[in-house]
Amino acid sequence: MDHKQIIKDIESGKFENIYFLHGEEALFMDMITNAIVKHALQEHERDFNQTIIYGKEADALSLISEAKGYPMMAERRLVVLKEAQDFRGIEDLLPYFEEPNEQTILVINYKYKKYDSRKKSMKAVAKNGIVFKSEKVKEYRLPDWIKSHVISKGYSISPKASMLLAEFLGNDLSRIVNEIDKLEILVEKGTTINEIHIEENIGISKDYNVFELINAVGARNVEKANRIVDYFDHNPKATSIIVVVSNLFNHYSRLMRIHFLENKSRESIASALKVHPFVAGELLNSSKIYKPKKIAANIAVLHEYDLKSKGVGNSSFTHGQLMKELVFRLMH
Fold first, then answer.
1. What is the mean predicted confidence (pLDDT) over 24-32?
2. CA 19 – CA 29 distance, rounded (Å)
3. Cα torsion through 177, 183, 188, 194, rounded to 10
4. What is the pTM of this model?
5. Which residue ranges does the chain devote to CATH 1.20.272.10?
6. Residue 96: left (phi > 0), alpha (psi -120 to 50), or beta?
């Protein structure tokens, strides 16, 4: 069951006795927890029937005691264990997991890592409640996830704008959501969010970013690539050579794969490389410029400059100078 279905059930008043939320993506766990806190109790019931405990401060006996308590002038109690990854007594909760209080909702929010599903405790929770594993969104799916989230907020978004957000913010969904929340305040509902909105309200340059540099190098647009690298040289906080090398390596690796695909349609490339169709189109164009021999040579150049950026064989060049030299060699 995904987080959307769990939240839908919660909003309709269907609750489980136990929710064990764990995994690497904190956002989905927090969304479920917030939905439970919002809908499990009415405002006037919370003072006597809602308990929020943090992992570092918790002990198993106290937690079980809270969960076994009876509601006061309410249908149920709510006990939430936040930051459960800092709690060392989860296995000590096994007796409660096996026989939970029917009048209590117990939420365990175990962030940033997975809990061992082979443990008896997890099997007991799965029998008497819900175990939800929150997975990170794969990077190639980020633009589509951003698009879906933006649509749920009453907006649409251009492919380039969603790619900018994905490239700049990575798969930190909480950060992405926070930035979209800012746009929600500043941009009228129903608007199609584009790269200008991103630049003006979030601070990601629509012209000077790693995404545009990759496109410029991929298209062998020397003037544009040099202009972007010069911007990076004068604005070191905009990116780093490590990020540039990593993204260029991914770009050339994808080009090499395209050369050995039988079906070179945009849709086939998108499926094979697990990229957005918009990106697949850009890669297809670039593959017509860079042949396998040049791609192999460029990957060797990237390895060389990765080492130089870490001080190997380089004692005097700045990262900005290395970027300029790197981009020149890749395109010539």
1. 95
2. 10
3. -100
4. 0.71
5. 210-331
6. alpha
